[in-house]
Design goal:
Layout (H helix, E strand, L loop, with lengths): L2 H10 L13 H6 L12 H7 L4 H6 L4 H4 L16 H9 L1 H17 L2 E3 L7 E3 L5 H10 L2 H15 L6 H13 L7 H8 L6 H12 L16 H6 L9 E4 L5 E4 L32 E2 L7 E4 L19 E5 L14
Antiparallel strand pairs: 1-2, 3-4, 3-5, 6-7
Helix pairs in contact: 6-7, 10-12
């Protein structure tokens, strides 16, 4: 069983054998705005107010994500604490604390070039601010953000916001089909889609990932949209032709991106069977056609650290997707952290 499959299985099965530490309540106290995050952090209400749109800080600071999105796994921030079940229950059942969690989600979505269109359904769309391209570019090029998204998804599931996962992933897959967020393919296939708890939703998202002609169904925003908003999902240009390498060694050009089948191909596209048990995971391997120049290889999107969460851990030395054109970070993302 691959490391990714083991990580997903532990999450979906509720971390067998893990017991609550009733004295460990730092996450709950932080969300009650009683204590600051550490190191070099702040109270959660101040983070929501002062850090929103502060992209250099959100990119370069590596100690806040574990506080905003606690999960039941050890993080790379030794000052943070694993989420306890009693904490998750308290946050989920308190409307004020849940509101703070949603603000944390909005903060990160904005950083990634997206926005929460509806708090009820969890609908996500490309943000209206013109800097969304720079944000998308940063998300593609700074792979530690893929680890942060893994943490965010797991946290949403622990805090009774499981229904937020599908709209986010559906949006990212849709954007990938239009030529953006291409580097996120492996994370989508091996880490993000598999942590959706519903087997039906996992399979639906996995099929959408494989075949853009079958869009996933997502609850629409209740409010009536303007013509401009309706057109947002189709902005950004068309996809490029990809040459997909098949298991038998043959290649075929298609107007869509597919995952190459291997000897480890699971019978379920999501890598998890109907009972929530992991199967052998397939590697996502996209071969870009020769007409796409200046291809740059992106390293694997998750750490070898067993926690599978954000931090400064070493990345696995594996090849991921190839991007047809190397995007450059400009403006507020010009400086490397």
């Amino acid at each position: 069983m691959s490391w990714a499959a083991k990580d997903v299985a532990r999450y979906l099965s509720g971390y067998p054998g893990k017991k609550d530490d009733l004295a460990a309540n730092l996450n709950l106290r932080f969300y009650k705005n009683e204590i600051q995050s550490y190191p070099q952090g702040d109270y959660i209400d101040e983070i929501h107010k002062d850090w929103f749109g502060h992209y250099e800080l959100l990119e370069g600071h590596h100690g806040y994500i574990q506080w905003l999105f606690p999960i039941r796994e050890k993080g790379m921030n030794s000052y943070s604490q694993e989420l306890q079940l009693f904490e998750a229950k308290a946050i989920a059942e308190d409307p004020k604390l849940t509101k703070r969690l949603i603000k944390s989600y909005r903060l990160m979505l904005d950083f990634y070039g997206m926005e929460l269109a509806c708090e009820t359904t969890g609908l996500v769309r490309r943000k209206k601010n013109e800097n969304w391209k720079e944000c998308y570019c940063n998300l593609e090029e700074r792979s530690h953000n893929w680890l942060r998204i893994t943490r965010i998804l797991k946290c949403l599931g622990e805090m009774n916001l499981e229904h937020y996962k599908k709209p986010l992933l559906a949006h990212m897959i849709s954007e990938r089909h239009t030529g953006y967020l291409r580097a996120c393919g492996r994370s989508l296939a091996n880490y993000w889609i598999p942590v959706v708890r519903s087997a039906d939703e996992r399979d639906e998202l996995a099929q959408y990932f494989l075949d853009k002609t079958k869009p996933v169904s997502v609850a629409p925003e209740p409010e009536k949209k303007t013509g401009e908003e309706k057109n947002m999902a189709t902005e950004g240009g068309g996809h490029q032709k990809a040459q997909t390498k098949l298991a038998d060694g043959k290649s075929v050009s298609k107007e869509k991106t597919t995952i190459a089948t291997t000897t480890d191909q699971p019978s379920s596209a999501s890598g998890i069977d109907g009972g929530g048990q992991p199967q052998k995971m397939a590697e996502a391997k996209i071969v870009v056609s020769e007409t796409e120049t200046a291809a740059t290889t992106v390293t694997n999107d998750q750490t070898s650290n067993a926690s599978g969460i954000d931090g400064r851990g070493q990345l696995q030395n594996m090849t991921g997707d190839k991007i047809g054109k190397q995007s450059k970070i400009t403006g507020f993302f010009a400086k490397k952290p």
